[in-house]
Amino acid sequence: MMEVSPSENVSLREFGCEQTLLSRPDGSASFVQGDTSVMAGVYGPAEVKVSKEIYDRATLEVLVYPKVGLPGVRERSQEQCVRETCEASLLLSLHPRSSLTLILQVLHDAGSLLSCCLNAACMALMDAGLSMSCLFCGVTCAISTEGEIITDPTAAQEKESRALMTFAIDSKEHRVMMSSTRGSFSVQELQQCIAISQKASEKIFQFYRDSVRRRYSKNL
Amino acid sequence: MFSVLKERVGDVLLPGDEFCCGPQETLSLTDSGKPERLVAGPGIRQSGDRLLVSRSGVLRHKEPNKFWIESQQRRYVPAKGETVIGIVTAKSGDVFKVDFGGSEQASLSYLAFEGATKRNRPNVQVGDLVFAQFVVANKDMEPELVCIDGSGRANGMGVFGAGGLLIKVSLGLVRRLLAPHSDLRADLEKLFPCELVVGMNGRVWVRAASVQQTLIVANLLQSCDTMTPSQRQQLFKRVQQGGL
Amino acid sequence: MKDTPLSNCERDFLLKAIEEKKRLDGRQTYDYRKIKITFGSDYGCCFVDLGQTRVMAQVSCELVTPKESRPNEGIMFFNLELSPMASPAFEQGRQSELSVKLNRQLERCLRNSKCIDTESLCVVSGEKVWQIRVDVHTLNNDGNLMDAASVAAISALCHFRRPDVGIQGEEVTVYSPEERDPIPLSIYHMPISVSLAFFQQGTYLLVDPCEREERVMDGLLMIAMNKHREICSIQSSGGIMLLKEQVMRCSKIASVKVSEITDLINKALLNDKTARKAGGRCGFAESIPQERITALKTDQTSVEMTGVGETVSSIVQTAEAPPQKVPSPLLPVPGVGQVGEGMRNTWGVEEEEDGDSSGGDSGEEAVKMEEEQHKEDKSRKVDVVEILDSEEEEEEEEVVILYPETTEKAKNKGSSSGQKGAATSRKQQKK
């Protein structure tokens, strides 16, 4: 039986975050994972276009801007992944007939971009003070050709990997809210990656808590 | 009664945090006469016998039974009875449309001013500032403002704004300014005489004796969000001594 | 989304303040806000903070065929994107008037001033030249986007390195940065735009207007100049009448500002160069201000792995075993494999694609498949069902296992929301 062994150095690159760094948006955050960084801005609840109005909940729009060129198919799929995750955690029914706009600007892509987008999105939504049922975070796992699992891979590790998966995990019960995968892998490997991501998410949620606590340290 | 909650007062909580209130709490909810009924304020939602936190911030408590999450927000969501500073954006028929920074424009009837009658219309121009109170504010209806209180008096509301400056601050700062014994307000009062109109929607209108002083007050207020009381007092002292 | 309207009282106050030579943020008439230039970790990436206004520029390059009219010249392409992040008034995918104006001004400032030696970008005359693309993204609009964009664009161009190319006969090879050091662009001069706002029909003048000042101004004069005091472009908008002396005075102010900013850019470039040489970390991640309470950073952390193996094996074991029997494949026509009687095999198309992408040679493919099957056999716990087509088997297995898993999940969640349900079903579809 071939057992996929997670490599010894299953680790997350150093990560950091800055909230409320832009003056115009209602909520903003930049999230850095290693060299990968994404900036997020949130507007809302704000006026909604009649064509996009939903009578019983807020319309959430997610826009991803690449660093070079105009948004393409890749960005559209990232937008969809982030939007569906946000929709599941936000309490959109509290603000019917209004719009929430989440804009993500890729500042640097050095691997695990989608998980960085998710983390930046969550921090920005929190900064905007929108009501959420739970928080979420993104974790990317790569399975190398030797069958090793690497969490938070760099761009080079992503390139060499056999399979790449990104999970959005909720803060309450550490369940998978969204998954996006590439490449082929066995069920065993998938479960292993999910389990590792759930472990890794604890670190990120602790980081969320620490950074919010730091932020309110002058209001205590 | 709410020992679980009370223990955490002053703590920073995040969306998704949960509190389980024991069965005795749920019983007391049905007992309407008792004061133990829990009032869940902004950021806390009740679901069955559990309390869910839906916003990040500091848990606050007010005796005997009010709990809420204090957070730093910038976007305003209207609530009935709150007073805001609005900007008149249009006159359409019998109502003025007022922008207050929310998701929708509020309507303000021309009769909702002190002494206004069908003949005697108030003098309101597009672009004017109004200080007004919400009479209708819920998620499903168009918000409605009035500039009179229940007895038909202006009570400080109406069109205002000549000679002052409008600034935008966080909603948290506004609430700190309006708190009954606000130390921030006390600090400001020591500085120099100035006039403030504070709307719950994060807009503050400032007027002092000169343009320079108005600008100083405005800039001080905008920087107050990220300062501890001691840092603020130091800064104010420096301003008083003419350091800035 | 609409922008917040400007009230009459703000307008009156601003104009009164300007008359008294006072500005909202305490600046003097000719003062710029604080400019901060940060470079990203890769070449050609630059962030500029002008007070609260934030702009990012990224330079990229590509080999293209040149224009017929200029076979020996590289191509410069500028794109200034008014992202909705910068202001609620900016909408996605719509070319607003402001966007056109800023793009045009940026092009005039940087391309038409011939500040970059486009002839050095030629690789093979008439066939291959470098196209240099400059993307400027607005992140936060607090007025004077133009000046911030021009500083960001020229700094990014100065910072950029293009890959080296070698020509041997007809062959053009592009060397990766590991093989040969990338080459900087040859830049003749650095044009920088300086915006001057006019109030009260030109009576009052302010340098670097902020957002609210921009809203009440009567006219705007944008002068692009380099430090040799050569004017690269000049544009007046708003329709105010300016006297000759006023324009001369403005250009004098601009020349002072331009030399200040050029020094700043050079200093930032030098700083970045020494940091890179020393091997220190640079880039956006390092520019997060640590002392602010809104910012937090952690070091690299390892993930606690205890118990992961157990949970995985327990999940895999508790998952309902896949049905032992798979309907036997049907062979209606030679060369066609089908599962399930009378049903069309929906996997057919995908299978073909998979085959195409995995291996070109059919013979090799067959060997590979067999190997794969061997691996599969070894790794799987469940009883192996004998199907000759390994590709099909793999897919079949995935479907079979996923099904009980999702149902279990649904059971677990009980009152899971509609979105979650949609997510899992999407997952299934992906498979």
In helices, the fraction of residues of chain B equals 10-25%
Structural class of chain A: alpha+beta
**How many H/I helices of chain B?**
6
Name the structural class of chain B.
Answer: alpha+beta
Count of the domains of chain A: 1
Strand order of the main beta sheet of chain A, please? 2-3-4-6-5
Question: Over the alpha carbons, how many angstroms does the gyration radius of chain B reach?
Answer: 21 Å
Largest sheet of chain A: 5 strands, mixed
What is the largest interface, and how many residues per chain? Answer: A-C, 72 and 70 residues
Q: At the first level of CATH, what is the class of chain A?
A: Alpha Beta
Q: For the residues shown, what is the average pLDDT of chain A?
A: 91
How big is the Rg of chain A?
17 Å
Biased composition (Basic and acidic residues) (chain C): 365-384
Keywords (chain C): Cytoplasm, Exosome, Nucleus, RNA-binding, rRNA processing
Pfam family, one (chain C): RNase_PH_C
Protein name (chain C): Exosome complex component RRP45
How does this model look, in words?
Chain A is of the alpha+beta class and 220 residues long. Helix content of chain A is 30%, strand content 31%. Chain A has one domain (15-218): Ribosomal Protein S5, domain 2. Chain A is built from four helices and ten strands, in the order E-E-E-E-E-H-E-H-E-E-H-E-E-H. In chain A, helix 1 (73-89) packs across helix 2 (113-127). The model of chain B is unreliable at 25-31 (pLDDT under 50). In chain B, helix 4 (183-191) runs parallel beside helix 6 (229-240). In chain B, a hairpin with a 7-residue loop joins strand 11 and strand 12 (144-146). Chain C is 38% helix and 21% strand. Chain C contains eleven helices and 16 strands. In chain C, strand 13 (219-225) and strand 14 form a beta hairpin. The longest helix of chain C is centred in the middle third of the chain and has 34 residues, at 244-277. Chains in contact: A-B, A-C, B-C. The interface between A and B is medium-sized, with 38 and 31 residues. Strand 1 of chain A pairs antiparallel with strand 16 of chain C. Chain A: This is Exosome complex component RRP46. Chain A: One of its GO terms (biological process) is poly(A)-dependent snoRNA 3'-end processing. Chain A: GO terms for molecular function: DNA binding; RNA binding.
